[in-house]
Fold these 2 entries.
Entry 1:
Amino acid sequence: MTTITLASDYGTPCVQCGELLLSPEWSEFEDDEHVVNLWSCDKCGCQFETKAAVPPIGEAVIRAFFSSLLVA
Ligand SMILES: [Zn+2]
């Protein structure tokens, strides 16, 4: 079994109260290699941004991901 782990979007703790936030409110590509996530905490209302590197997606990763979808 192949597990693909992406570099971001797996949750981050709130910078103010430590509540685990599971997904960003909003995301934007800063350039080809970085994405900026805007987080909003439901518990304390704090909003903050994080920047994450986007891993290059190679052919092997794409094949591993989509091979499970192929029936033929
Ligand atoms: Zn918070």
Entry 2:
Amino acid sequence: MSGSGAAAQVFGVGDVSIVKVVDVIEPMSPKVLYVDKTREDFDPHLDWLQPQFIDENRSMLLSIHSLIVQTGRHTVLIDTCLGNDKESAGFPQWNHRRGTFLEDLARAGCPPESIDYVFCTHMHIDHTGWNTSLVDGRWVPTFPNARYLFNRKEWEGIKDLPGVHEQAVLRQNLLPIVEAEQVQWVDGEWEIDDVVRLLPTPGHTPGHCSVAVSSGAGRAVITGDMMIHPVQIAEPQWQQAADADKALAAATRTAFVQEHCDTDVLVLGTHFNTPTGVHIVSQGDRTRIRLTS
Ligand SMILES: [Zn+2]
């Protein structure tokens, strides 16, 4: 499934709107995402995960989308998905894509020139792709008027990795932004309009940051890959294969679930399929979700 084509989902948080624009939705095997989990491990959770988050084949539905926070004064785009025309992207279907993301972004009222800031929760391929677009054979910033917030710790963690995949991310998605002088370096701390601020959630990568949004009585957190699938609200100790520091990531996730359980904080999962926004609630000694529309 590539490009939603459907109307964008919009979340209201106080006076702020958060617009979700999908790049791609993919069914994915638990084995790809988790260290030692299989489809059977989902059986105790199917009653609350299907049909939104697990399909009829018991594949996980992984949504790759951007969340655009409109504070009234600034427009901040969180995570830039896969992008088009990329190479060495890891999964074959992520290479040489021709998705409709930019058209969908414009249709949702957020054309590229309207974006003031871009922040990638971390510097993996599926969070940095639309940083750039291929124009006349060159990678150029997709968002011409944006400052791209680069987390120095995250950059230090990736820039010297020798793998083909990491180097492809650097070459295609990151270095062109540096060369265009559109980078604003941050150290895990940044906020704007008293509405949007970074929330360090290390483990998946060393510098990984979620994003907290607050406006009036409304509060939300955009997870990034601190948690990839809603099942982890019930099973925060499950280890994600892609977590760089698996123990730290599990500790970060467990603390997050405990801290946000039975609160009014809207949890917006960066890879949660529609409806994407959930509240964490307790059911006896278990943690589950309450869906929002
Ligand atoms: Zn991801």
